[in-house]
Amino acid sequence: MKITEQIKQPIAYEMELFEQKFLLSMSSKVALLNRITHYIVNRKGKQMRPMFVFLVAKMVDNGQISERTYRGASVIELIHTATLVHDDVVDDSNRRRGFFSINALWKNKIAVLIGDYLLSKGLLLSIDNNDFDLLKIISVAVREMSEGELLQIEKARQLDITEAVYYDIIRQKTATLIAACCSLGAASVKPNSQDVDTMRKFGELIGMAFQIKDDLFDYGEDAIGKPTGIDIKEQKMTLPLIHVLNNCSKKEKSWLINSIKNHNKDKKRVKEVIAFVKQNNGLEYAISKMKSFQNEALQLLSTYPESEYKSALQLMVNYVIDRKK
Length: 325
Known about the structure:
Elements: H1 3-8, H2 12-25, H3 31-42, H4 48-60, H5 67-90, E1 95-96, E2 99-100, H6 102-128, H7 132-158, H8 163-189, H9 194-217, H10 230-233, H11 239-245, H12 250-262, H13 267-279, H14 282-301, H15 308-322
Antiparallel strand pairs: 1-2
Helix pairs in contact: 2-5, 4-5, 4-8, 4-15, 5-6, 5-7, 5-8, 7-8, 8-9, 9-14, 11-14, 14-15
């Protein structure tokens, strides 16, 4: 059995019901809108976000969930989908999860309007049900994601990222959404409890480890084999590179910065940068940091009693580190 299927097993019924509720939460009187939202639902990914919501809710409340849990999962998926649709427009991307993106099929104007529609549906789902605590969690996440993206753009222009700034960027860009899923799960069954904070921290730690794993793929870590160097081409400063930049000689540093600034489209030069980062322990350093985030996350879980939901979350934490793509 695939590891994602194993993780989903204790909440298989809830996930099936969630899919029906999620499609309903997007429905509209406009036929074009319904056609596009059906297209989105039928091309869903692994659905990690709702899985976090349900597993956390069940772990902290002895296997119980409520209607609020379904709404929380729907809100996070609506708003996350809205950001992906907008991202594809911004990046001029024609593919999403191996299928055509919304902007590729229906052009930019419709894609932007669909993103806006999904965002408003998510907000209204919370407001109509007085789930203001859940709405606050997700709204803070959206604000932080936007700030993280802008911080990364600002820093990429200057190439002056310290390790601390890098952690700020990935905390806001990636970790904040997983943190929101986990705190939403806890808040849906135990509002205003300590679990809401503990689970937010848990999600944040997983998100940090997840992003570092993504950064490592650029260097051909493990199964993917071939280094891609895409981050270097896009002048994205990731942890392996930042560590090496801050620990090499002045001459090597200026060669690295010059390579990223002025030769990032030169395949041979990008390969040389990748080799230099590898030789100078950039990957080992990033892996050790990733594992320390993983261990901290597992430590937080250890305070909860044993259950199939806790075991599935432990599997999830390890899957984030061990995944091959």
